[in-house]
Design a protein that fits this description.
Elements lengths: L3 E5 L2 E5 L1 H4 L4 E6 L23 H14 L8 E2 L8 E3 L19 E4 L6 E5 L3 E7 L4 E7 L1 H6 L1 H13 L7 E4 L9 E2 L2 H10 L7 E4 L2 E4 L1 H12 L6 E3 L14 H4 L6 E7 L9
Parallel strand pairs: 4-7, 5-6, 10-14
Antiparallel strand pairs: 1-2, 2-3, 3-15, 6-9, 7-15, 8-9, 8-10, 11-13, 12-13
């Protein structure tokens, strides 16, 4: 099923219907619409350390978190370095990245702590949200091509299993907007990395056109979810290409470094009842 589009007071965001139906969580995938940042970060920029002001960032986070019912003051931000570190977040991490320094690098965050929003970011890379409705846990993943080839998606599922007792067959997953195969044109290094990691499972998501390859990053991240043990019916894919839709998203490939980023946030509701089965 396609993602749903929502708008409130000029702020636009997306949700995955399967996660919407889960009573224990709230989530959202932001767009660039509805914030206060000036160009080239206009307007709902969630990217720290890029030249946008702290005042604008705090207001953007406040607005986006408000529409999904989250407390932006408790949000935990990933510190993305295109590697495969997964951080298990606790209440001690609340506010890190926006109000407090991050004492970690991590491209994926997981928690079983209610009321602790987890945030990851993209300007073409894959962003995924995970929910375990049985054990009461959530995860957020940044999976660009390096992280994808490194297996960060499977590693996050394994971390949730080890730390929370999550069973892959119980997990729900949403794969957000990212650069699509229409626009993700590369040389042979990316296909080689994907094939080395996934073997023949990568082949349907790699297409050669002339001298270049076109890569389906969302499809590859979905393949990792399948490999990790998630049922196909427990996954939803946005299907939107960040490079094709500059009206909604920032794209590193199309815009370079003078831009903002969109993000994805998920959290456990404080009234979430964990079930230890």
């Amino acid at each position: 099923m396609s993602f749903l589009t929502h708008e409130q007071n000029g702020l636009m965001w997306l949700t995955a219907p399967m996660l919407d139906a889960a009573p224990g969580i709230r989530h959202g995938f932001s767009t660039r619409k509805g914030g206060v940042s000036p160009a080239p970060f206009d307007s709902l920029n969630l990217r720290t350390g890029c030249g946008d002001s702290q005042e604008h960032l705090e207001e953007n986070y406040r607005r986006f978190c408000a529409v999904i019912g989250a407390d932006h003051r408790r949000a935990v931000l990933s510190r993305q370095v295109h590697e495969t570190t997964v951080r298990v977040c606790t209440a001690a991490d609340a506010g890190k990245g926006l109000f407090r320094q991050r004492d970690y690098t991590a491209d994926a965050l997981v928690t079983c702590e209610p009321g602790l929003p987890l945030a990851v970011f993209s300007a073409d890379c894959g962003i995924l949200l995970l929910h375990d409705p049985v054990r009461g846990a959530v995860g957020a993943i940044h999976a660009g091509w390096r992280g994808c080839a490194g297996g960060i998606v499977e590693k996050t599922v394994q971390t949730m299993a080890a730390c929370f007792g999550s069973r892959p067959g119980d997990l729900l997953a949403a794969i957000g907007p990212c650069i699509g195969p229409c626009c993700f044109e590369t040389d042979g290094d990316v296909p080689a990395a994907m094939t080395a990691a996934l073997g023949s499972g990568a082949e349907p998501y790699l297409r050669r056109r002339g001298q270049k390859w076109h890569v389906d990053l969302a499809g590859l991240n979905r393949q990792w979810l399948l490999r990790a043990g998630l049922p196909a019916e427990h996954m939803e894919v946005s299907g939107l290409c960040t490079a094709c839709r500059p009206d909604l998203f920032w794209s590193h490939r199309k815009m370079g470094l003078a831009r903002g980023v969109q993000g994805a946030v998920i959290y456990l509701r404080r009234d979430c009842n964990k079930r230890s089965l």
